[in-house]
Amino acid sequence: LEIGGKAITIDIEKRGLVKYILFADLYFPEGIIDTIVPFLIPVFLVKEGVCVEIATLTAAFAWIPWIIKFMWSGLIDKYSRYGRKTFVTIGSLIAVLCFFILFFINPVTSIIPFTIFLFISQIGQSLHDSAADIWAIDVCKKKERGKINGAMAAGHTIGASSSALILAFIA
User: For a pLDDT cut of 70, what percent of the chain falls above it?
Assistant: First the structure.
């Protein structure tokens, strides 16, 4: 962070409250995505004219990266020299880029590309999740892990519940 030409760094290991806010913020958008994919995507696809079976299958297929999420931890540990934040960033960028591309794909005429980009977005999201979990473990003292985990769960739940309220009106 730079203020008035002076570089200011915040050591999150020394600032407990900052850690809780950081990890809650990392999981907030994940909660939003966790409501969009299983709930809004099928509604959107059906509204666009895709049959219910294909819409449901598309959303289900997108969740496969969450089943194989454990593989990211090994990859992140193997390349830990690049830092945990790097993987959080890469995962987030993959998810955002793919969701942006989805905006331009007509699912009625191109359901396979739509499904592939939705799937890749969830690869990014699950990579983000694994990297944030590992990063939280790295920067926390053992006695703080429960509180950090609670902050992460709270961020996720606030994101999911607030987006569910909004998405209900959109749907």
Answer: 91
pTM: 0.80
Helix (H) or strand (E) holding 6: strand 6-7
Region 144-157 average pLDDT: 88
Using the CB atoms, write b or e for 128-162: b if 16+ within 10 Å. bbbbbbbbbeebbeeebeeebeebbebbbeebbee
DSSP 86-123: HHHHHHHHHHHHHHHHHTT--TTT-HHHHHHHHHHHHH
